[in-house]
Amino acid sequence: MLRTVDAAPSHYGPRHTMTEQPKHIALIMDGNGRWAHARGLPRRQGHEHGVEAAARAVQACAERSVKHLTLFAFSHSNWKRPKDEVELLMRLCMQFADDHRQEWVRRSIRLEVIGALDELPRATRLSIERAIAETRGGERMVLTLALGYAGRHDLVGAVRAIAARAQAGLLLPEEIDEQRLRAFMTTGNMPDPDLVIRTGGEKRLSDFLLFECANAELFFADEMWPDFDDALLERALAAFSRRQRRFGRTAEQLAQGA
Ligand code: IPE
Ligand code: IPE
Ligand code: MG
Prior knowledge:
Elements: E1 24-28, H1 32-38, H2 43-63, E2 68-75, H3 83-106, E3 109-115, H4 122-134, E4 141-149, H5 151-167, H6 178-183, E5 195-198, E6 217-220, H7 230-242, H8 251-255
Parallel strand pairs: 1-2, 1-5, 2-4, 3-4, 5-6
Helix pairs in contact: 1-2, 2-3, 3-4
The structure holds 3-methylbut-3-enyl trihydrogen diphosphate (2 copies) and magnesium ion (MG).
């Protein structure tokens, strides 16, 4: 089904320098394993503390009236991890949804998913689907979990769907544009991230929101994900507020309000 997309042309970006608070923050929650290793603990405990950090991130962003928060919780490549670890991560995703569903309803937080929900184990999928259904009315913040997510897969899926429509005579090649492509991606309903924060010290995107991050500001923190706290978020927001988002224009043009 074609998703509804924001009709506003986005190719020129906003008219001002956009140093205000980001509307959409995306978090690459990396470093659970190293956090545990540094303490002589099994990776499992790193992931368990990681889930608590994720809950803190939701709370901190909701308190700051961030409209969209996207958490990279499990990548498509993470299926390659040892079976035990994958099972644990799936169980933790399920618990995260079960434990926080009611709180999200109370706080008017709507849960959504990008990636491949249908590839998750049934129990995890059902918990997530239940939380999505029960939080549907949430309007204060959209919390999106990236599960089984790969940016390239999302693009390939959209291209396939578009090709099928074109083959069926429902779409002409010249009708395919950015907006149309977006509409077929699992991210089709969300605005592009303004700020991506990655913990864990690595400076890469790991196939996260490749298309959507075209103009995102990137913030890399050396802290491991379980140590995520309000102070780290503040640091990232402060850095964001100092960046000048030029969207291809010159600083002089921006000063003139172009
Ligand atoms: C992030 O922490 C959690 C997931 C990828 C699911 P890692 O498990 O990648 O931790 P490190 O990078 O090995 O420390
Ligand atoms: C990225 O972390 C994925 C998530 C945070 C879910 P990884 O630990 O899987 O990424 P790489 O392997 O270091 O690129
Ligand atoms: Mg990692």
